[in-house]
User: Fold this.
Amino acid sequence: MKSSHAIGDVAARFGLDTHVLRYWEDVGLLRPDRDGAGRRRFTDDDLVRVAVVLRSKAAGMTLEQIRVLLDEQAPSRHRVLEDHLRDLEIRMAEMEQSRRMTEHALRCRSHDITTCPRFRELVEDVVAGTGEWTAERLAAAEPDHPVITAASA
Assistant:
């Protein structure tokens, strides 16, 4: 017999509110069974889907991308995953640059890090406007945290 878990137990296991699981069901990420009284019953396979959603969100995927990932019939599945891999590569490069900046800031003798010539080299492309770091890119990377630009202010 398959394990069956109540929504409250699943929410507690993953540190979520129950409304999050209901929302994920509404948008097609989860498909829990119902018992005779209409209550959601999550199987072990559903728990795996919750874990996939959490891990994918942590990796920067949108709920729509995750929905496609979990839909074995989605015709755009490979394209979505290839696009996400490219996004991950960009984010990893940005994180590596951020790590270098942080390491330098820890070792730098300048009291005002912005006056350090070597630190300034690390942000030179952003200052020049030639780097990938733009308000639009930030907004796309974090859709839940809009960036205020001169045009939107």
Q: What stands out?
A: The first strand starts at residue 5 and ends at 6. DSSP finds eight helices and three strands in the chain.
